[in-house]
Amino acid sequence: MNLKQIVGIEAASYVEDGMVVGLGTGSTAYYMIEELGRRVKEEGLDIVGVPTSTRSKEQAIALNIPLKDINEIPYVDIVIDGADEFNDDLDGIKGGGGALLFEKVVANMSKKVIWIVDDSKHVEHLGGFPLPVEVIPFGSQAVYVELAVKGYRPEWRMQGQEKYKTDSGNYILDLNMHKIPDVHALAKELKAMVGVVEHGLFIDMCDLVIKATQNGIEKIEK
Fold it and tell me: Considering the entire predicted model, what is its pTM?
Protein backbone atom coordinates (compact mmCIF):
# COMPACT_ATOMS: atom_id res chain seq x y z
CA MET A 1 0.00 0.00 0.00
CA ASN A 2 1.40 3.43 -0.88
CA LEU A 3 1.37 6.45 1.43
CA LYS A 4 -1.51 8.16 -0.37
CA GLN A 5 -3.60 5.02 -0.07
CA ILE A 6 -2.85 4.70 3.66
CA VAL A 7 -3.99 8.25 4.49
CA GLY A 8 -6.98 7.97 2.17
CA ILE A 9 -8.23 4.89 4.00
CA GLU A 10 -7.52 6.43 7.42
CA ALA A 11 -9.47 9.58 6.56
CA ALA A 12 -12.45 7.56 5.34
CA SER A 13 -12.74 6.10 8.86
CA TYR A 14 -13.95 9.54 10.05
CA VAL A 15 -17.09 9.15 7.95
CA GLU A 16 -20.16 7.85 9.79
CA ASP A 17 -23.69 6.78 8.86
CA GLY A 18 -26.00 9.64 7.95
CA MET A 19 -23.24 12.07 6.99
CA VAL A 20 -23.15 14.40 4.00
CA VAL A 21 -19.57 14.00 2.78
CA GLY A 22 -17.59 16.36 0.56
CA LEU A 23 -15.60 14.23 -1.88
CA GLY A 24 -12.28 15.87 -2.62
CA THR A 25 -10.33 15.84 -5.88
CA GLY A 26 -6.87 14.56 -6.66
CA SER A 27 -4.58 11.56 -6.42
CA THR A 28 -4.88 11.16 -2.62
CA ALA A 29 -8.63 11.86 -2.46
CA TYR A 30 -9.04 9.13 -5.08
CA TYR A 31 -8.12 6.47 -2.50
CA MET A 32 -10.45 7.99 0.10
CA ILE A 33 -13.36 7.78 -2.35
CA GLU A 34 -12.42 4.19 -3.22
CA GLU A 35 -12.52 3.28 0.47
CA LEU A 36 -15.90 4.97 0.95
CA GLY A 37 -17.19 2.99 -2.02
CA ARG A 38 -15.95 -0.21 -0.40
CA ARG A 39 -17.65 0.68 2.89
CA VAL A 40 -20.93 1.50 1.11
CA LYS A 41 -20.83 -1.87 -0.67
CA GLU A 42 -19.48 -4.12 2.10
CA GLU A 43 -20.60 -2.39 5.31
CA GLY A 44 -23.81 -0.75 4.12
CA LEU A 45 -22.46 2.70 4.98
CA ASP A 46 -25.30 5.19 4.56
CA ILE A 47 -23.94 8.51 3.29
CA VAL A 48 -24.57 11.20 0.69
CA GLY A 49 -21.58 12.44 -1.29
CA VAL A 50 -21.04 15.95 -2.64
CA PRO A 51 -18.32 15.88 -5.33
CA THR A 52 -15.89 18.77 -5.80
CA SER A 53 -15.22 17.98 -9.46
CA THR A 54 -16.44 16.03 -12.47
CA ARG A 55 -13.69 13.45 -11.85
CA SER A 56 -14.79 12.81 -8.26
CA LYS A 57 -18.42 12.65 -9.38
CA GLU A 58 -17.69 10.05 -12.04
CA GLN A 59 -15.63 7.95 -9.60
CA ALA A 60 -18.38 8.08 -6.96
CA ILE A 61 -21.08 7.09 -9.48
CA ALA A 62 -18.99 4.10 -10.57
CA LEU A 63 -18.77 3.03 -6.90
CA ASN A 64 -22.53 3.49 -6.31
CA ILE A 65 -22.01 6.23 -3.70
CA PRO A 66 -25.29 8.21 -3.48
CA LEU A 67 -24.74 11.82 -4.55
CA LYS A 68 -26.46 15.17 -4.21
CA ASP A 69 -25.79 18.52 -5.83
CA ILE A 70 -24.32 21.15 -3.50
CA ASN A 71 -27.45 23.28 -4.01
CA GLU A 72 -29.67 20.50 -2.64
CA ILE A 73 -28.12 20.40 0.82
CA PRO A 74 -27.94 23.01 3.64
CA TYR A 75 -24.47 22.00 4.86
CA VAL A 76 -21.75 19.35 4.60
CA ASP A 77 -20.78 17.32 7.69
CA ILE A 78 -17.23 16.58 6.61
CA VAL A 79 -15.06 17.18 3.56
CA ILE A 80 -11.91 15.17 2.93
CA ASP A 81 -9.50 16.53 0.35
CA GLY A 82 -5.86 16.77 -0.58
CA ALA A 83 -3.62 19.84 -0.39
CA ASP A 84 -0.66 20.92 -2.49
CA GLU A 85 1.06 22.67 0.43
CA PHE A 86 0.28 23.47 4.05
CA ASN A 87 2.09 25.21 6.91
CA ASP A 88 2.09 24.86 10.70
CA ASP A 89 -1.01 27.10 10.95
CA LEU A 90 -2.86 24.60 8.70
CA ASP A 91 -3.22 27.23 6.00
CA GLY A 92 -2.65 25.81 2.56
CA ILE A 93 -2.49 26.03 -1.20
CA LYS A 94 -4.91 23.93 -3.21
CA GLY A 95 -5.94 23.77 -6.84
CA GLY A 96 -3.13 21.84 -8.49
CA GLY A 97 -5.86 19.61 -9.88
CA GLY A 98 -7.86 22.58 -11.11
CA ALA A 99 -10.87 22.17 -8.79
CA LEU A 100 -10.11 24.99 -6.33
CA LEU A 101 -13.41 26.86 -6.78
CA PHE A 102 -15.68 23.88 -6.12
CA GLU A 103 -13.35 22.63 -3.36
CA LYS A 104 -13.53 25.98 -1.58
CA VAL A 105 -17.33 26.20 -1.88
CA VAL A 106 -17.70 22.73 -0.33
CA ALA A 107 -15.09 23.44 2.38
CA ASN A 108 -16.86 26.67 3.27
CA MET A 109 -20.11 24.74 3.82
CA SER A 110 -18.44 21.98 5.87
CA LYS A 111 -18.52 21.50 9.64
CA LYS A 112 -15.18 19.65 9.53
CA VAL A 113 -12.39 19.93 6.96
CA ILE A 114 -9.76 17.18 6.73
CA TRP A 115 -6.73 17.32 4.44
CA ILE A 116 -4.91 14.14 3.49
CA VAL A 117 -1.30 14.59 2.43
CA ASP A 118 2.17 13.11 2.42
CA ASP A 119 5.22 14.52 4.19
CA SER A 120 6.39 16.53 1.18
CA LYS A 121 3.37 18.87 1.40
CA HIS A 122 4.33 20.22 4.86
CA VAL A 123 6.27 23.48 4.37
CA GLU A 124 7.52 26.38 6.46
CA HIS A 125 6.27 29.07 4.05
CA LEU A 126 3.55 28.80 1.43
CA GLY A 127 4.39 29.67 -2.16
CA GLY A 128 6.83 27.01 -3.30
CA PHE A 129 3.90 25.38 -5.07
CA PRO A 130 2.50 27.70 -7.78
CA LEU A 131 -0.62 29.46 -6.47
CA PRO A 132 -3.63 28.90 -8.76
CA VAL A 133 -5.89 31.85 -9.54
CA GLU A 134 -9.13 31.10 -11.39
CA VAL A 135 -10.16 33.86 -13.80
CA ILE A 136 -13.05 34.32 -16.21
CA PRO A 137 -11.97 34.13 -19.87
CA PHE A 138 -13.37 37.61 -20.68
CA GLY A 139 -10.61 40.10 -19.96
CA SER A 140 -8.28 37.42 -18.62
CA GLN A 141 -5.29 38.87 -20.49
CA ALA A 142 -5.70 42.10 -18.52
CA VAL A 143 -5.65 40.11 -15.26
CA TYR A 144 -2.50 38.33 -16.46
CA VAL A 145 -0.80 41.67 -17.15
CA GLU A 146 -1.87 43.09 -13.78
CA LEU A 147 -0.47 40.07 -11.94
CA ALA A 148 2.77 40.26 -13.94
CA VAL A 149 3.17 43.96 -13.11
CA LYS A 150 2.78 43.08 -9.42
CA GLY A 151 5.74 40.72 -9.81
CA TYR A 152 3.77 37.52 -9.19
CA ARG A 153 5.11 35.75 -12.32
CA PRO A 154 1.82 34.36 -13.65
CA GLU A 155 1.71 31.49 -16.14
CA TRP A 156 -1.30 30.25 -18.06
CA ARG A 157 -2.17 26.70 -17.11
CA MET A 158 -2.25 24.75 -20.34
CA GLN A 159 -3.82 21.53 -21.54
CA GLY A 160 -1.91 20.62 -24.67
CA GLN A 161 -1.97 23.65 -26.96
CA GLU A 162 -5.10 25.14 -25.35
CA LYS A 163 -5.57 27.05 -22.11
CA TYR A 164 -6.79 24.69 -19.37
CA LYS A 165 -10.48 25.10 -18.55
CA THR A 166 -11.99 24.38 -15.13
CA ASP A 167 -15.33 22.64 -14.61
CA SER A 168 -16.85 26.14 -14.62
CA GLY A 169 -15.25 27.00 -17.95
CA ASN A 170 -12.72 29.42 -16.46
CA TYR A 171 -8.96 29.73 -16.96
CA ILE A 172 -6.24 29.28 -14.33
CA LEU A 173 -3.19 31.48 -13.87
CA ASP A 174 -0.48 29.89 -11.71
CA LEU A 175 1.57 32.40 -9.71
CA ASN A 176 5.23 31.50 -9.19
CA MET A 177 5.90 33.43 -5.99
CA HIS A 178 8.20 30.92 -4.25
CA LYS A 179 7.46 32.44 -0.84
CA ILE A 180 4.30 34.32 0.15
CA PRO A 181 5.15 36.84 2.89
CA ASP A 182 1.57 37.49 4.05
CA VAL A 183 -1.07 34.97 2.98
CA HIS A 184 -4.00 36.96 4.40
CA ALA A 185 -2.98 40.15 2.58
CA LEU A 186 -2.46 38.32 -0.71
CA ALA A 187 -5.80 36.50 -0.41
CA LYS A 188 -7.59 39.81 0.10
CA GLU A 189 -5.71 41.46 -2.77
CA LEU A 190 -6.46 38.69 -5.27
CA LYS A 191 -10.14 38.46 -4.31
CA ALA A 192 -10.53 42.20 -4.93
CA MET A 193 -9.24 41.98 -8.52
CA VAL A 194 -11.90 42.27 -11.20
CA GLY A 195 -12.03 39.07 -13.26
CA VAL A 196 -10.68 36.84 -10.49
CA VAL A 197 -13.23 34.21 -9.47
CA GLU A 198 -11.22 32.50 -6.72
CA HIS A 199 -7.67 31.75 -5.58
CA GLY A 200 -6.04 28.66 -4.16
CA LEU A 201 -5.19 30.03 -0.70
CA PHE A 202 -7.25 28.08 1.81
CA ILE A 203 -6.90 30.05 5.05
CA ASP A 204 -8.47 29.26 8.44
CA MET A 205 -10.44 26.37 6.95
CA CYS A 206 -8.66 23.14 7.82
CA ASP A 207 -9.42 21.38 11.12
CA LEU A 208 -7.25 18.27 10.78
CA VAL A 209 -4.34 17.16 8.60
CA ILE A 210 -3.68 13.44 8.24
CA LYS A 211 -0.09 13.15 7.03
CA ALA A 212 1.60 10.03 5.79
CA THR A 213 5.26 9.73 6.77
CA GLN A 214 7.77 6.92 6.36
CA ASN A 215 7.22 6.20 10.06
CA GLY A 216 3.45 5.96 9.77
CA ILE A 217 0.52 8.34 10.06
CA GLU A 218 0.77 11.68 11.84
CA LYS A 219 -2.25 13.81 12.72
CA ILE A 220 -2.09 17.58 13.16
CA GLU A 221 -5.13 19.35 14.60
CA LYS A 222 -5.95 23.04 14.54
Answer: 0.96
